[in-house]
Structures are given as structure tokens and as C-alpha cells.
Design goal:
Shape: elongated
Number of helices: 6
Number of strands: 0
Structural class: mainly alpha
Radius of gyration: 35 Å
Helix content: over 70%
Number of domains: 2
Strand content: under 5%
Length: about 120
Amino acid sequence: MTEAALDSPRTRAAIANALDSRTAKQLVADFFESGLFDEFVVRLLESKALWALVEEIADSPAVTAAIARQGFSFADQMGEEVRSRSRNADHWLERAAGRLARTRQPEGEAEPGSDVAR
């Protein structure tokens, strides 16, 4: 009987109206401002059942697989960044070495790759 009463459209509409009311919103605001929520969180964090639940979730195959995929993805991103920076550094060093070689060319000697002497 109770289940049928709670499941009726009239009851659901009344509950929806009550939850959407200004009074319900004020009740939630009062709950947070009273410090009861803070007390709830403290007691929840002290609960052994919460930590058993967290451990169960953390040890689940889906979570460990997701962490492994994320770890590989991060490693791939870091590897690509290091490769990119290494290529940029190589190009910069090659250009700098080329400029240095051209400026240190003694008078009258031909630059590498040219047929004409200075």
C-alpha cells in the first residue's frame, strides 16, 4: 500500500512541487549554514565503510584499466613533447653551427659547397 501511494502520479507531483519550492531551497541553505554538512563529511571520512567502498572501487578492473590507459597516454604525450623539443634544438644547433662555420672562414678560402674563392 505504501509503495503504491508513493508511486502515484499525485504523490510524485506533490514531492516535485515541494522540492521546487522556496521553502525547500531555504531548508538546504540552512542545512549547509548550520554546520551539519561539515559534521556529516567529517563523520563520513571517519567511516570504515566509506574507505572499504573506496578501496573496492579503486581495485576494480575498470578503474585500474582506465588508470593504465591514462598513464600510457600521458607518457605518449610527454615523449612526443621531448621528441619535438629535441628536433627543434637539433635544428637550432645545426643553424648556429653553420653560421659559426661561415663567419670563421679565413679570407680567400672557399665556403664549403661553393666554387668561388672570396
